[in-house]
Description:
The chain is an alpha/beta fold.
Amino acid sequence: MMCGTTRREVIKLSSATLAALSIGNTALHSSQLLGQPSSPASEHDRTTPSSVMAIAAHPGDAFFAMGAPVALATHQGGAAFLLSLSLGERGSSTIPPAQYGAMQRDATEKAAALIGATPLFLAYRDGEIPVDDEASLAVCDLLRRHKPATVVTHWKGSWHKDHRACHEIVQNAVFYAGLPALARENPAHAVRQVFYADNWEDAEGFVTDTYLDISPVFEQYSNACSMFPMWRGETGFRYNDYYSSRAVECGCLSRCRYAVGLMSAAGQSVRNLQAL
Length: 276
Ligand SMILES: [Zn+2]
């Protein structure tokens, strides 16, 4: 990763970038506040396989904006999950929602198989994902069951209400999942880190602070995305061109062939030093 990067740039990028998705230890850390993602990973953590869960409002978001980190996790030997809170069944102006929802589910399952990830679904109606405790606890339960170290989800600065809802639900779900005193079917699980995905619909206030080299899985990621007709622009936006171009742009900026930009959850990039 980071081919050709200078030493100064390595220092700048190291804490978040190298830690990005290479974490397998899911135990609660003594310094971690209950219900909160922990501080950046230790050197030891960075050598272990990752487990990643992408949590998106719609399957297209899960794959186009979050699928590459998921594909990288499975490529590196980790477990990975793609959770869609709805099927995005209202995303076509010509195909009825019931039929389009079935197509979306089918595409999701095929695409997930191509990158070795497990697809997960909640059955909220597209456009009507509620921000409530039922949704937050449903996601909490999936976090506790599958125990991802890393969660990738929507940034809150979105024009799409489902994306904003998903962001809020995930904040609450990570909090609930990490609370040992909150009794659910499975014991508490502390998510180690949360990243927000670079999504053309969630661009307001989005600031990339982490680049993840996805060169080894870029083709696999593209093939998975192509399971969705909308990837080729059939619903009016050229997803393929946009996300492929972004991967090249981020690759240029981080000295790799292809990369994705991620934004860390608040406080996650704080470093505790004993000397400068
Ligand atoms: Zn969406």
